[in-house]
Amino acid sequence: MADAAAARHLRTYGQIAWLWVRAAWQYPTSFLLLALGNGLITGLDFVGLWIMFAHLRDLAGFSLQEVALLYGSASLALGVADTAIGSVERIGAYIRTGRLDQMMTKPVPLLVQVCADQFTLRRLGRLTQASVVFGWACTHVDWTPARVLVAVSMLVSGALVFFGLFVGFSCIQFWTTDATEFANAFTYGGATVTQYPLSIFPREVMVGLTFVIPVAFVNWYPCLYLLGRGDPFGMPDAFQLASPVAGLLTLAAALLVWRTGVRHYTSTGS
Amino acid sequence: MLHVAIAARAFRRYSTYRAATLAGIFTNSVFGVIYSYAYIALWRANPTAGGYDQQDAVTYVWLGQALLMTIALWGGGSTDDLAERVRTGDVAIDLYRPVGLVGWYLAADLGRAAYHLLTRGFGPTVIGLVVFDIALPASPVAALAFGLSLVLAVVVSFAIRFLVASTAFWLLDQSGVKVMSGAFAIFFSGMMLPLVLFPGWLGTLATALPWASYVQVPADVWLGKHTGTDLVAALGFQVLWAVVLLAACHTVLSLATRKVVVQGG
């Protein structure tokens, strides 16, 4: 029963997303420039890391290819989450313009509508670039069946963690519609943190990134497993396999915050 | 006088979004902390990278966060209004007003920049001072020159954003060009990584492009890396790009004006 509903929501999501893709094609030049621009932003991001390594042999004990593994996996996870539901960031604007009220009157779950709204394939730029970096870094890993399994679970769970962060922190806008940037500190901030080996941070930061904003599970712990490295902070080995738990917990927390936010929502009234 | 009035109104317009400002200061500070630790790791491994020491590097991080919104590194600011008015056709009304369009939008953008400097520039800098012991301006001359360099940085950035917005005359929508331009600005301004770290020809290229005026030049002035004639040369570099780009804005605008007339009423 629940499965049938989920499949229906997914189909609705696909239909709305496809409408937006066709709409974006009405300005093909702009569409292509946007996709190229998005690929460029993330591409230059990695050039930045590469330039860092022109001055270094290793960053806190991690080689360029090891950092690329961290960077590529986190960027892929973020890219998947951002492509699927990145529009949720805009709920503040929907509240201000009264568009959210319109959405609530429609027979499709609000979260599905908000996530699919203004869906854009230009984010494929990031996914392409991240795949290339991740692919290159993967040649450095000494693969075993268990590691393949952990790598797959890392990408799925990482996307779930970012999915949760995007939805959860966007809900702040139910209370303060103009403080959208607050969420960026956790979503894009989390994405930036995961580009680096977490061993560059003090232990307290590291603990926060494990238990409060669990981005350490996006790539740090599973990558330690893939690289067969010990944890520099001496965290339990089980953490290296715990990404799915972190992903599901983040998602559950985010959906709870979302429901509270929607219940709290009383429209702008105009 | 008119332009001062425009700037003052722009300042007040931005000051109405208080929660947004606080959220922004918080976010800039979080990124400041992240990049500080990354740079500390880099300079711990290579203590003289790019001719900076660790304190220079961490100071550079917080200056970058302070300048991010002031310079409008990602694009936006008053030029977004222009692009929107081009898209809707309202720009036709602007064009027959007895005020220069470039001067009008520049004044508005300086007002915006002043607001962002006082809030999102000052806020993170204080946090950087408390948490990371960043360096203050190297000398009174450096502090004064930094102020001048900052104004020039905003003007150069404005001119580039104006040119980006002007593409709407031809493309109807600036967003694609804006994203591209923002990507270049982040990379070549030294926001992502100080340009002093860029190796070989990439470094030569990056320091010659106008984006170097955004972060690298003001930061080096603050850190006292330029003194005497070198300081004059650094500011002269910014002036040169400001003049060249503002001239380009006027040219593009006169071309665009003809385009608007051709489209007819």
Can you tell me the overall shape of chain A? globular
**Largest beta-sheet characterization of chain A:** none
Computed Rg of chain B: 19 Å
Largest sheet of chain B: none
**SSE order of chain A in H/E notation?**
HHHHHHHHHHHHH
Estimate percent helicity of chain B.
over 70%
Oligomerization? heterodimer
Radius of gyration of chain A: 19 Å
Distance between the termini of chain B: 33 Å
Mean pLDDT of chain B: 91
N-to-C SSE string of chain B, H for helix and E for strand: HHHHHHHHHHHH
The structural class of chain B is mainly alpha
Report on this model:
Chain A is mainly α and 270 residues long. Chain A contains 13 helices and no strands. Chain B is globular. Chain B is mainly α and 265 residues long.
Descriptive key words:
heterodimer; A: 270 residues; mainly alpha; globular; B: 265 residues; 12 helices
How are the SSEs ordered, and which strands pair?
The complex is a heterodimer of chains A (270) and B (265).
Chain A lengths: L1 H23 L3 H26 L10 H22 L5 H7 L1 H6 L5 H7 L7 H15 L6 H26 L1 H4 L4 H14 L9 H9 L8 H8 L15 H22 L6
Helix pairs in contact in A: 1-6, 2-3, 2-7, 3-7, 3-8, 8-10, 8-12, 8-13
Chain B lengths: L1 H13 L3 H28 L8 H17 L7 H11 L2 H5 L5 H32 L7 H27 L1 H4 L3 H14 L11 H9 L7 H7 L6 H35 L2
Helix pairs in contact in B: 1-6, 2-3, 2-6, 3-6, 4-7, 6-7, 7-11, 7-12
What is the structure about, briefly put?
The complex is a heterodimer of chains A (270) and B (265). Helices cover 70% and strands 0% of the residues of chain A.
